[in-house]
Design brief:
This protein is an all-alpha fold. The protein has helices at residues 3-17, 20-35, 69-92, 98-115, 121-127, 129-140, 150-168. It has one domain. The protein is globular and about 45 Å long.
């Protein structure tokens, strides 16, 4: 799932709970629920089969840390879009909800910060067994669609973003 989707849904969760610990935890948990839905991301270009491990689909992909120029461009566009939407929410919403917005977004992003960064996640997995175990757990929920199913994967994420924005801007 893209950074933008996790950021905006997590922000909505944080505001909905109005509780920092619950907002962070609910965002973290929701990350895995969101990843279990069909979604489009950089892995879509490498996916040979589509389907989650929890439905007993054996995915055979190119190694996940073999990022190429296209992946980095997608990542930068995703960060820019997510950052712009998030900063727009900060500008539009009252200051008393900012903390909840931030903590919920951070909770929802944390699984990918730990486990999916092309900059440090591979090193963490080789150094810490707990991170390796978490990676297997995190990967179990993923349902990255193939590139020819991008419409389905994008529709899922756009729907989640629209619902979250509608809640936040109500």
């Amino acid at each position: 799932m893209l950074f933008t989707t996790h950021t905006i849904v997590g922000a909505a969760i944080g505001v909905a709970t109005k509780n920092p610990a619950l907002g962070f935890a609910a965002g973290f948990l929701t990350h895995h629920i969101m990843d279990s839905l069909p979604h489009f991301d950089q892995g879509s270009y490498r996916a040979i089969k589509s389907g989650p491990n929890y439905l007993n689909t054996k995915i055979d992909n190119v190694p996940e840390f073999s990022y190429i120029k296209r992946d980095w461009i997608m990542l930068l566009i995703d960060f820019a879009l997510g950052g712009t939407l998030f900063l727009s929410l900060l500008a539009l919403l009252p200051i008393d909800v900012w903390f909840y917005l931030i903590i919920g977004a951070l909770g929802c992003l944390m699984p990918d910060i730990i486990d999916s960064s092309p900059l440090w996640s591979k090193k963490l997995r080789t150094k810490y067994k707990l991170i390796t175990k978490y990676h297997k757990f995190h990967k179990f929920f993923h349902w990255t669609v193939k590139k020819n199913q991008a419409f389905l994967g994008a529709t899922t994420q756009i729907s989640l973003i629209i619902i979250s924005l509608a809640y936040l801007l109500k």
